[in-house]
Structure formats: structure tokens, C-alpha cells
Amino acid sequence: MEFLLTVVELGVTLILIVFSVVVLEAWRRRHSSNVSVESVTTILEDPTSLKQVRCPHISDPAEMYLSLIVPAFNEEQRLPAALQEIMDYLQGRASRDKSFSYEVVIVDDGSVDGTKRVAFDFVRKYTLDNIRLIPLGKNQGKGEAIRKGMMHSRGELLLMLDADGATKVTDLEKLENQILAVAREENSIRDPTSKLVDFRIGDVQVSAFGSRAHLEEKAIATRKWYRNFLMKGFHLVVLLAAGSGIRDTQCGFKMFTRAAARRLFTNIHLKRWCFDVELVFLCKRLNIPMLEISVKWSEIPGSKVSMLSIPNMLWELALMSVGYRTGMWKIHQA
């Protein structure tokens, strides 16, 4: 009996310690929603002229139609093929549509391989106006890399996509078309007297989440039983943390209008794998329409995500739950 009481006491003590650590970390991050973090001007380096160029900010008016944000951490091997596919698509579309303008923003998340060199090679080839590199210096996490890219992009529409090319870049048109349809409807409701020629897609708040949910049945059939068990458990925790609405929160293919990105990425706190879940949570709290759209996806060797990522994801979900539910993490409405 004494042994059982000792085990219970140790268990309760451990739970209290973990909870205290989560609360303290959530408190430490209460001001990291980046409204003030961006006060320091980010500078780009032009590898051709060696001149320094000031980065734009998400609060500035849009200068491009489309921005593609590519986070990269030690992607020397996979990045060249993915970037070439992206540029072939963008250049081909621009040649067919003279009004189409674009940029690719690569965010180097503290890589220690040749990622920066690869990115600069593409900047030299396609010019700084079409491809830009933002180096973070040290590794800060995929979420922070994407946030940084979003905050310094020039597009009316902003697409985040992974550096491995797992999702075909052409699928962005699926997200784009759905956003355009919803944005036009939202704009007509907001201002019935406005004309279509006055419509700017970047001014309407809409988000579109690429989804692999339609591939789940096949994935369950081929994955090990314990991986399925862990993934189901993770999906349950995500449901409890962010609620329903998006079945596949973790697909790295998401598009936002400029107005939506400005509100979302000035509020986000999580810096690593679970920032996607926080985006869903924030969309709901900020009443930003969410679309979930099926995209083609293929497994690319070299993924940074492993089963060891699950504890880190659970840690971030715990932080998010405590941060918002206690009111320590504020949501800025502007």
C-alpha cells in the first residue's frame, strides 16, 4: 500500500512539474507573436551586385501577384530540383500571361550544408527580383522560417510549400481558384456596390489548406500499426487543441491572401512543426474562411519528420493550449 501511494505521489509530482514547465514556457513566449519583433529591418544581400536591399514588409502594399515561400534546412540535395520545377512553372505562366508577376522567397533556417550556395546560384540565374534568400543565421524551426518569409513577401497571394517538391507546384492553381471564388463572394457581401475591376484579391481574408486526407486510406494500409496508432493519437490531440474543420493540418502546401497572412503571421507563437495547428486555431478565432483542397502528394526521401518529432509536436500543442486558454497569448485583431 505504501508503495502504491509512493508511485501516485511521484506521478502527481511529475505531472505538476511538467505543467509548471509548460506554463512558464508559455509565459516566456507571451510577447513572441511578432508584432514588435519585426521592428528591426531585414536586409537582403544581392549575390550579383553585393549590394544590400531592404526587405518589404507584410504591412506594405503588394508589389507582386504571387509569392512562394520555401523554408529550407539542410536542403542542398533536394532544393535544386524543386526550385527548377517552380521556376519552370512560373516562367511559363508569366510568358502566357503578361500581367502575372511572382517571386520566390527562400528562407534558410540555419543550414550547415550548401543550401545557401544553392539558393544564391538560383538568385544569380533568375535575378533578385524573382528569387530572394532570407538567412535566419541559426536554426529556429520550420514555423519561424515560414513566418519570416510571409512577413517579408510582396504578393497579393502567398503560398508556402516545402523544399522537397512533394506537392506539385501546379496544384497552386487549385488553391488559387478556390480562394478567388470565395474572395469575390466575400468582397461582394462586404461591399455590394464595388465593381469587379476594383477588386484586389489581397485585400480579402481567405486561407486555403492543401490536403492529403484523400490519400489516408492508402497510407493506413501501408504504414506499420504503431505508426497508425501514433498518428491517430496525434490527430485526436490536434482536434482537442484546434477543433475540427481541417482534416490534414500538416500538409506543407498552404495559400493565404495578403490580408489573411498579415493577421495570422503577426499573431503566431509556435516556431516548429505545430505552427500549422495554430494557424487553424487562429483562422477560427479571427473568422478567416478556411478551405481544404486535395492536392497531389508523393513521398520524397530525406524527410526531416520522424516519430521522434511527435514529442516535440505534443510539447508545442500543450504550449498553445495553455497559452491561449489562460489568456497569456493575446490575439491582435488588427
Would you write up a description of this structure?
The protein is α/β, with parallel strands linked by helices. Helices cover 44% and strands 14% of the residues. It is built from 10 helices and 9 strands. It has helices at residues 2-28, 79-96, 115-126, 142-151, 172-190, 216-222, 225-242, 258-265, 275-285, 309-325, and strands at residues 43-45, 52-54, 64-72, 102-108, 131-135, 155-160, 207-211, 254-257, 290-294. A 7-stranded mixed sheet has the order 5-4-3-6-8-7-9. The chain has a two-stranded antiparallel ribbon with strand order 1-2. α1 (2-28) crosses α10 (309-325). It starts with a helix and ends in a 9-residue tail after the last helix.
Fraction of residues in helix? 40-55%
Class of secondary structure makeup: alpha/beta
Instruction: Give the uncertain stretches in residue-range form.
Output: none
Q: What is the average per-residue confidence, as pLDDT, rounded to a whole number?
A: 83
Instruction: Determine the oligomeric state from the structure.
Output: single chain
Strand segment tally: 9
Rg, please? 21 Å
Discrete helix count:
10
Major sheet strand order:
5-4-3-6-8-7-9
Terminal Cα span: 58 Å
Strand content: 5-15%
Order of H and E elements: HEEEHEHEHEHEHHEHHEH
| Sheet with most strands | 7 strands, mixed
Shape: globular
What key attributes describe this structure?
334 residues, 7-stranded mixed β-sheet, two-stranded antiparallel sheet, 10 helices, EC 2.4.1.117, endoplasmic reticulum
